[in-house]
Amino acid sequence: MVDRLSVHLPCGESIVRAVDEVSFTLERGQTLALVGESGCGKSMLCRAIMGLVPGRALLPAPGRIVFAGQDLGALEAGERAGLCGGRIGMVLQDPLSALNPVMKIGRQIAEPMRHHLGMTRVQARQRSIELLRAVGIAQAATRIDCYPHQLSGGMRQRVVIAIALACEPQLLIADEPTTALDVTVQAEILDLLADLQQERSMAMILVSHNLGVVAGRAHETAVMYAGRIVEQAPTGELFARMRMRYTRALFDAIPRLDDPAQATLTAIDGQSPDLAALPDGCSFAPRCAHAEARCTGEAPTLVSDGHARHRHACWFPCAVGPTA
Amino acid sequence: MRFVGGKFLHLIVVILAVTVLTFAMLDLLPTSAAYAVAGANASAHDIAAIQEDLGLGDPALVRYGKWLAGVLRGDLGVSLVSGQPVAQAVASHLPATVELVVLAQLFTLLIAVPVGLFSAWRVDSRFDRFCSALGFGLTSIPSFALAMVLVYFLALKLKWFPAVGYAPLSAGIWPNLKSLFLPAVSLALVEWVILMRVLRSELIATLQEDFILLARAKGLPAWKILLQHALRPSLFGALTVFGLQVGNLIGGAVIVEQLFALPGIGRLLLAGIFAQDFTMVQGCVLLIAVAYVAVNFLVDVGYGLLDPRVRCGGVVRG
Amino acid sequence: MDRKAGGVFWLAVAWLVLVAALAVSAAWWPLPAPDQIDWVRLTAKPGDGGHLLGTDSLGRDIAARLLFGARVSLFVGFLAPCIGLLAGGLLGILAGFYRGTFDALIVVIIDTLLALPRLVLLLVVAFVFGSSLFSLTLSLGIVIAPSVARIVRALTIRIAEREFILAARAAGASDAAIILREILPNVLMPMLVYMLVITALVIVAEGSLGFLGLSVASPMPSWGGMIAEGRDVLAEHPHVSMIPAAVMFLTVLAVNLLGDRMRGWLDVRESQL
Q1: ipTM exceeding the 0.90 mark
Q2: If DSSP states are collapsed to H, E and C, what string results for chain C?
Q3: N or C, which end of chain A has less CB nearby within 10 Å?
Q4: Over chain B, what is the mean pLDDT?
Q5: Looking at CA atoms only, how far is residue A167 from chain B in angstroms?
Q6: Residue of chain C nearest B296, judged by CA positions
């Protein structure tokens, strides 16, 4: 459970509100998708959960992260590090740079097990081979002695996943796990993650900038904008009844197979706002075609509408109805 | 191993050029070697006889050929002053130099690596800034002045170490180390700064990498991340600098060898210069240059050990 | 160093101005001549018997010797980098601009000269040229030249690939015009900054030669020689060595500080481009 978590990065004179009062709860065996444009705070949120924010970042009260009943902020640094890599695993965006180029992959997979579970070298190696098989790498017993540069991008991401799974985590954080990969490999990796998550009944946070990616794979979807969650609902409900114009815009940005060949891709006008100087009121207002006076004057809060688990932050939400 | 092969060719070319250079530099000197041998009040007849003897009448190219052929057989000629074979003199002065280099670079590493790691881990911390400023000051002190200060306090005032002299290994390991401690430290106190700077800046770059983030996400403690993940990929620049330093100390430690009266190559060269002993100077310069080039060749090969991508003939990191 | 080095920076400038002024005016101060021997006061303490900084083991006035030694250090520290920059810069630009066989030859020569530790090269070159002040300066200049040539060559190659060189060539400019008008200004600025670093190196190198007894012939004082001369009386009279060592350290530090500052300015300038 994440409760009113904020991450503030002092940057010269101003403070960048990278994550601003974000709250959500994630149950075991569930997948939460975090969706939003680049720079909206998704990655910083993941890092905050892992305790990997940059040294100068501030985590102002009353933000808390509660994992399996423990308030992570209240833990000693050592205990916290014991959770990371042990009970919480993480998959990074770019597998090409996420693996140490001068270390054999076997050792990189074995490392957390040796550290957290106290395995011997032989045990850890045995288990690493099993893990490589589990993430779908053929000839695991020989590949384990490869260096990262000897593997393809997709294989490397499988290795990164194997590392994240090494200690049987209860929570897996996948930060844009497929962005850096070929389109053909993307679906494979996503399906692999979904399968593993089901198999091991882990909780998973799946970060993406692409609504299409999360559509069939997440139980719940939260849309982030400028450091805040602006709409959150069970995935099916979200797709059926989008209330936020920003969510709609993201949705329209997904290219579709049934589009005519000449159709131009829809882009969202304007740029993500400067997180150091957010406007008063709704932060999406400057880019919103439907903004009115109230939008620029007063910030909307995350409220529930008719559907109990569907929350959104907009004064003038889209009409409820099937996707147009 | 085509990578190593190319480097080896370069090594040969440079060494060959060095032999030409050393030969030419001293052969074309205004004062003829014959005068140096015969002394100031030799008769013209003596000079002619000595010139004949040394083969100085031949054209330069022939003499170079003869000299080079001798060098390849390990014959560096005979000292014009003492009559001792140069190769023998060089060999007897090599141990002190090698020991000094090893010890000095050991101290350099012992200071530079921990300081570099800690400074890079906490960039701009008080420790980092202190070490930068200290290093800046140290590199501005001429090595001989620094050595004098060390001698004054550690040898003359506290009497912990001998002020001059060299105890060979045969005199026992402890006296030997004691006699080399001050010279090695005076070298290391300047050298660590340069090594630390390179290591620190490379480490800072490495610590921004995703694989460090992943290592942190594994929950590894800081020392493991630094030593096992960050250090090795950050050693390329430091290795180059280290090689240059080792190459430089063979012969380049002249001042320290002279100040502490260590019987090393640098001091042999200096004595040769003072005595106008051309063949001795030639032999020393050749050895110093070959050692320098060879060390740098070994550094290039060392890249392969650090980076598996180079070993497999892949990309070479600039 | 960082931005707050402002005060330190001006201190460094002030120190160098002071040293330069004293070196120029060395002969006009009411001090004993640098080679005048005070038989009564050998290794006198600073302030003793009218010797402001004391005397060395031959009874010569340290203050006077420092002033005259400063002449050598500053003369060499200014002229040798100029010679090195001129010779190295010329060869580097020509090699980098024309490439081909000439370039290959220059590269081999550079590599060969740099395959000797600088001090060894300096010893050998000084050995060949002898030890008057001018030949000393020349030797130091020659030792600097290969490093300068290597850097200038690399810079020239980079600049020669840029569009404005192509444009100048297309406009019919001659090689000489391109080198003088397009390449030289672009190479000059980084090299001038580099020059202060060289100056510091040269002052140390001259001191090293002096320390080994291979700098200007005595009785002309040099800082390195003064430090070496104090070695025999180091235990009882450390000031004989330590005063010139301190002066030399402060001077080199000041030059390094200026160099560092100027490099900072250049970096800013380049990053703004």
Answers
A1: no
A2: CCHHHHHHHHHHHHHHHHHHHHHHCHHHCCCCCCCCCCCCCCCCCCCHHHCCCCECCCCCEHHHHHHHHHHHHHHHHHHHHHHHHHHHHHHHHHHHHHCHHHHHHHHHHHHHHCCCCHHHHHHHHHHHHCCCHHHHHHHHHHHHHHHHHHHHHHHHHHHHCCHHHHHHHHCCCCHHHHHHHHHHHHHHHHHHHHHHHHHHHHHHHHHHHHHHCCCCCCCCCCHHHHHHHHHHHCCCCCHHHHHHHHHHHHHHHHHHHHHHHHHHHHHHHHHHC
A3: C
A4: 80
A5: 10
A6: C115
Q: Where are the domains of chain A?
A: 26-53+71-218, 231-255+266-324
pLDDT tens digit string along A174-202? 888 877 777 778 888 888 888 888 888 88
Q: Which of A237, A160, A228 is nearest to A192 (CA)?
A: A160
Residues C26-38, mean pLDDT to the nearest whole number: 72
Both structure tokens of A83: 């959770």
> Would you state the structure tokens that stand for residue C254, as one six-digit string?
């000041």
Q: Chain A: list its partners (3+ Cβ pairs within 8 Å).
A: B
Give the chain B residue whose CA is nearest to the CA of A92.
Answer: B214
Extended strands (E) in A111-182: 171-175
Per-residue pLDDT tens over the stretch A78-109? 777 777 777 888 888 888 888 888 888 888 88
Tell me the nearest-neighbour CA distance from C167 into chain B, angstroms: 30
pTM attached to this predicted model: 0.79
Q: Taking CB atoms and an 8 Å limit, are A98 and B211 in contact across chains? A: yes
Domains of chain B, by residue range, sit at: 102-266
Mean pLDDT of B217-236: 84
Inter-chain touch B140–C111, beta carbons under 8 Å: no
What the block records as the tokens of A56 is 């100068």
CATH of domain C2-16+61-271: 1.10.3720.10
The most confident of B188-192, C235-239, C265-269, by mean pLDDT? B188-192
Put simply, whether B156 touches C (Cβ < 8 Å) is: yes
Architecture of domain A26-53+71-218: 3-Layer(aba) Sandwich (3.40)
- The model's confidence at residue B109, banded by pLDDT at 50, 70 and 90, is very high
Helix A105-116 / helix A121-134 crossing angle, nearest 10 deg: 120
Reported as a single tens digit per residue, the pLDDT across B42-91 is: 666 666 666 666 666 667 778 788 878 888 887 877 787 787 888 888 88
Strand, helix or coil at A88? strand
With CB atoms and an 8 Å threshold, state whether B252 touches C117.
yes
A and B: number of Cβ contacts within 8 A: 76
CA distances from B78 to A261, B111, B267 (A): 87, 42, 18
CA distance C116 to chain B (A): 5
HSE-up of residue B180 (Cα within 13 Å, Cβ side): 26
Q: Which two tokens stand for residue C80?
A: 């040798």
